[in-house]
Write a structure and sequence with these properties.
Chain A: It is a multi-pass membrane protein. The complex is a heterodimer of chains A (about 270) and B (about 270). Chain A has 11 helices and no strands. Chain A is mainly alpha-helical. Chain A has 2 domains: about 45 residues, no CATH class; about 190 residues, Orthogonal Bundle (MetI-like fold). With about 270 residues, chain B is mainly α. Chain B has a domain of about 160 residues: MetI-like (MetI-like fold). Chain B is built from 13 helices and no strands. In chain B, helix 1 crosses helix 13, helix 3 packs parallel to helix 7 and helix 3 packs antiparallel against helix 10. The chains are: A mainly alpha (about 270), B mainly alpha (about 270). The interface between A and B is large, with 78 and 77 residues.
């Protein structure tokens, strides 16, 4: 790399990481005032405060429950849908894919308010229902589904369609052939889709904001924190979340490297 | 495999949760509170044309800056060794794993009147600047949050360009500027187009960044919609009308972009 390129890359990464570093440093700030930007000594008191915050813990629990249910349901529905789409004729396929792409090209806020209209409409006509966990889960499954389908479809296309027929010729029932032959082939796509659904769900704010009623998820809780209280607790929370993500990514990378090494060894042998 | 029926539950799901809600937006946009047909909501959107213009302007500026800053980085990354490439791409993606509310909040603490940048300036004996609650701060927040969406698609197109095409151009006497403007840039157009779409759509429709970094004075379309549905101005009919206009606007913008894409591609095809 030439010197100018190096300097340029460093500057861009400085721009990307400086705010995050500042956020992390000030999470350890022992400020007595509510100031966010005057350093007054090292302390972990904001972390301790965080764990005494009942609202935060319940928001975290909601987020994890919603993400788990949404990832699971959207993976099952989406994988089945991808298989179905594979067997469709051109016209039907195009129609289904257009609807699938709609939530991905539409601004999130429009998807959010359109779902809110639906949920409010149904809740009103059913009597005294309110928006909450149930509507959040429905909304999250909806915006996760396209991502699952789009990660499973390419794997299906790569698969030899005769494998499935061969399994049936050899006496497998269609269902058994699916679990024995098709599913193992497309598994990497299914797993990727599920992980994407889970992370998208945890991270989502805009759609949750419009479909949550008074229920709080972690992003909604963070939003209300930035609106009302000016507190280094947010910094502590961000640091913890960021640390968790880095550890997870390192584990994934480490495992991939290990798999690669094992593969290389197997090839040598 | 004849498994069309496997998609049936999905089809039902998407009809209920994507198609029906969209139809509801259209119905709400064209009715009043009592439910009878009216064009009043759509007409009322006209009053907010300044908000629409501001959103499109700020979104376009942020997209242009992201492109200008992101393209060179994508090019730099595509030229280094594969092992270092994957590390750099990881570094580009890592901030996206932090919730965007927190990333935007980080900029609040930097830009405030008593924030870190101003404290630094003051400690060097320089005057303080008013940075937060300006349009510049909103654009900064957009660029910061969405620039990875510009870098990644451009990078992935650039790594796929056959280096022998570039060498051929050089052999035929093209200088560096010509190689870039006649070969590399046209060939990277699909990445540029998807980068622009992926930055422009969320930037134009944001309501958090403008709220957190723009103060009350820099209202955007997203803020207007938010106010009609969850804010003080509760009026879902008007909110639906604004959402509908926003959707049509973005569709038009994307249509124009793809027109441009096709033209450039065929040009590139003839040239190659």
């Amino acid at each position: 790399m030439k010197a100018i390129s190096k300097i340029y890359a460093v500057l861009i990464f400085l721009f990307l990481y400086a705010p995050i570093v500042v956020l992390i440093v000030f999470s350890f700030n022992d400020s007595t005032t509510m100031s966010r930007s005057v350093w007054s000594g090292f302390s972990i008191k904001w972390y301790l405060k965080l764990f005494q915050d009942g609202m935060l813990l319940s928001a975290l629990r909601n987020t994890l429950v919603i993400a788990a249910v949404a990832a699971l349901v959207s993976t099952v529905l989406g994988t089945a849908a991808a298989i179905g789409i594979g067997g469709m004729n051109k016209l039907m396929k195009r129609m289904v894919m257009d609807v699938t792409n709609l939530p991905m090209v539409n601004p999130e806020i429009v998807t959010g308010v359109s779902l809110m209209l639906l949920f409010v409409f149904v809740a009103k006509s059913m009597g005294n229902l309110t928006l909450g966990m149930f509507s959040l889960i429905l909304a999250h499954i909806t915006f996760c589904l396209p991502y699952v389908i789009l990660s499973v479809l390419p794997k299906l296309r790569q698969m030899d369609p005769h494998l499935y027929e061969a399994a049936q010729d050899l006496g497998c029932s269609p269902i058994f052939a699916f679990f024995k032959v098709v599913l193992p082939e497309i598994m990497p796509g299914v797993v990727t889709g599920m992980i994407m659904a889970f992370t998208l769900s945890i991270d989502d704010f805009v759609i949750s904001y419009f479909t949550s009623g008074t229920t709080q998820t972690l992003p909604i809780f963070i939003y209300s924190m930035t609106r009302k209280r000016i507190s280094p607790e947010i910094n502590a929370l961000s640091t913890l979340l960021f640390g968790t993500i880095i550890v997870l990514l390192l584990i994934i990378n480490f495992r991939q490297a290990k798999d690669q090494k094992a593969e290389e060894k197997a090839e040598e042998a | 495999m004849k498994a069309k029926s496997a998609a049936a539950p999905y089809a039902v799901w998407m009809t209920i949760f994507i198609v029906v809600p969209m139809v509801l937006v259209v119905i709400f946009a064209f009715t009043d509170k009592s439910g009878s047909f009216t064009l009043k909501n759509i007409a009322e959107v006209g009053q907010y044309s300044n908000v629409f213009l501001r959103s499109i302007w700020l979104g376009a500026v942020a997209t242009a800056i992201s492109l200008l800053l992101g393209y060179p980085l994508a090019q730099i990354i595509s030229h280094i060794s594969p092992r270092r490439q994957s590390v750099m791409i990881m570094l580009v993606m890592l901030p996206m794993w932090m919730n965007f509310l927190l990333r935007t909040y980080a900029w609040m603490t930097l830009l405030e009147d008593n924030g870190i940048i101003n404290n630094l300036l003051a400690s060097f004996g320089l005057g303080r600047l008013h940075l937060i609650n300006t349009q510049g701060a909103v654009v900064l927040g957009m660029v910061y949050n969405y620039i990875p969406y510009m870098i990644l698609p451009i990078y992935s197109v650039l790594t796929k360009i056959d280096s022998s095409v570039v060498e051929a151009a050089q052999d035929l006497g093209a200088n560096r500027v010509q190689v870039f403007s006649k070969v590399i840039f046209p060939m990277s157009m699909p990445g540029v187009i998807s980068g622009i779409t992926m930055v422009f759509v969320p930037a134009v429709s944001t309501f958090i960044i403008s709220k957190m970094l723009g103060g009350g004075a820099n209202l955007m379309i997203g803020d207007l919609i938010d106010m009609q549905f969850l804010g003080s101005a509760y009026n879902p009919n008007l909110g639906s009308a604004i959402s509908l206009v926003l959707m049509v606007l973005i569709l038009i913008c994307m249509g124009i972009m793809h027109q441009f894409d096709d033209g450039e591609n065929s040009g590139g095809g003839i040239m190659v």
